Structure formats: structure tokens, C-alpha cells
């Protein structure tokens, strides 16, 4: 029996959409291989299939990036298969007007903000430690020898 990758669920998603959303790179590769086997101009057909949109205008690449942002390795693997190997278009906009490039730019901006917050917190901690270290010798120097012997 021939595998029909064009069948859609009630959300308008194909098997590629579902595999991308679930983070199943091996399934993506199997589905794309089935498309390539079916047609002599397989590259063109793969590009059409991989860029199909669901009811919300999202491609499988949209779903891969949206679903796997917290897991860099899975997201990069899915993007490699869909965009680099199969020719998925990362400029296609969904029904909300958002492209995969937009999603990736937002993700990068969020990571930069998070890193800046970490850096700022680290700098504040360093400043507090420096201030505390600078204050300690002043206290110790102000103590007379008798008090220092008592403390030790």
C-alpha cells in the first residue's frame, strides 16, 4: 500500500505536521522518502508537500520550531530535515502573520534578554561582594589589638 502524505486530520494537518509537532525526525524522513520515491520530479513535489499549511496557516516547520523551542537539539534536527534537506520555506506566514524566521528571531531575542538578565545579576553580585570585601578590612583595621585577640 502506498503512503499518502497528503491526508489531513480535522486541524488540516498532514502526517508531516504531526511528526514535526511530536518531534519525530525519523518519521519525517520516512514520509519524505515516500514522497521522493513516488515522483520523478521528487524535489519539487517534496517542496510542495513540506510547505503545506494546516487550518491555522502553519507549516510543519512552524510546528517544529514552536513545539521544540525548549529543546535545541530536537529543534535543530527537525529544522535540518525540513528546511535544509526538504526545502521548507521559512518565510511562509501563518494565519497570524508569523513566519518561522519571526519565531526564530523572537527566540533569539528572548535568549539575549535572559542572558543580559543573568549578566546583570552576576554584575550586581560581584559589586556586592567587592563592596563587602572592601568593608571588612576597614572594620578589622579599626579594631585595637586587645579586641582582635578576643575575636580570635
Summarize the structure.
With 152 residues, the chain is mainly alpha-helical. The protein has 7 helices and no strands.
- How much of the sequence is in beta strands? under 5%
Q: SSE order, as H and E?
A: HHHHHHH
Q: Spans of 5+ residues with little confidence (pLDDT < 50)? A: none
Helix content, binned percent: 55-70%
Structural class per helix/strand content?
mainly alpha
Average pLDDT works out at 85
Distance between the termini: 86 Å
Radius of gyration: 28 Å
Would you count the extended β strands for me?
0
Largest sheet: none
Helix count, DSSP H or I runs of 4 or more residues:
7
Outline type: elongated
Explain how this protein is built:
- 68% of the residues lie in helices and 0% in strands.
- It has 152 residues and is an all-alpha fold.
- Helix 2 crosses helix 3.
Amino acid at each position: 500500500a502506498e503512503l499518502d502524505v497528503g491526508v489531513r486530520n480535522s486541524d488540516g494537518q498532514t502526517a508531516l505536521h504531526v511528526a514535526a509537532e511530536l518531534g519525530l525526525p525519523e518519521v519525517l524522513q520516512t514520509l519524505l522518502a515516500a514522497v521522493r520515491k513516488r515522483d520523478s520530479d521528487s524535489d519539487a513535489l517534496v517542496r510542495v508537500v513540506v510547505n503545506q499549511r494546516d487550518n491555522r496557516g502553519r507549516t510543519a516547520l512552524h510546528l517544529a520550531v514552536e513545539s521544540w523551542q525548549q529543546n535545541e537539539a530536537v529543534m535543530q534536527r527537525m529544522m535540518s530535515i525540513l528546511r535544509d534537506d526538504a526545502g521548507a520555506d521559512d518565510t511562509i506566514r501563518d494565519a497570524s502573520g508569523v513566519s518561522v524566521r519571526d519565531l526564530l528571531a523572537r527566540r533569539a531575542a528572548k535568549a539575549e534578554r535572559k542572558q543580559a538578565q543573568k549578566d546583570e545579576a552576576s554584575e550586581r553580585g560581584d559589586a556586592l561582594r567587592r563592596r563587602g570585601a572592601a568593608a571588612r578590612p576597614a572594620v578589622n583595621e579599626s579594631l585595637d589589638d586587645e579586641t582582635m585577640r578576643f575575636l580570635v
